[in-house]
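User: Please predict the structure of the protein below. I'd like the answer in structure-token form so I can feed it into my own downstream comparison script.

Assistant: Understood. Taking the following sequence of 190 residues as input:
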Amino acid sequence: MRFTLAAEKNNNLDSLQRKFSRKMFGAVKEIVLLRDPRDLYCSRLSYFKNINPRVTLQEVRWACTQLRKIRQEAASDTIFVKYEDIVLGNTDEIRRLSDFLGFDLYSVDTSQEQASRFVEHATSGSPAASVGRWREQLSEAEIRAFDENGAEFFRLFGYEKSTAPGGHHASGHHDDGAPYRLPAAEPIDK
């Protein structure tokens, strides 16, 4: 069987599924969707109501580690796209993705039907509200921990650190300098 176009949504960043697709289909184009880990953390806590925040932090750190590894191994058949650019309708990013795939994609659909699909899985009021939500929902200690532990991820994928010169966070809170560390990254049991 030969596919001209096939898409596989995969929530798992484990290399096994990625390698399987390449073995099964040969030449593939891989789209890696990125999201600010601070917003991902907030979203997961909102969606999975009874999840332990410590476990969520470990999952987000593990995902960031996997994304950095994918970036190191990436070839010309892999593109990294930011969730934020897609949900906010960044036309340059849509064009970049279209060029990568070799066909035109349409801009983000903001019709009522699309909005109602968003509501089915949403953990925020709108797609735009899902971007930067960490500024309102994270504590100072959590913000500081993401800054300290996520610096390489932020630099590699072009996300801003939340601390500004003078120790003030993007949330408007003053950083008192107290140390805080996210739990050590551990692989998630399958």
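That's the full token string. The longest strand covers residues 30-34.
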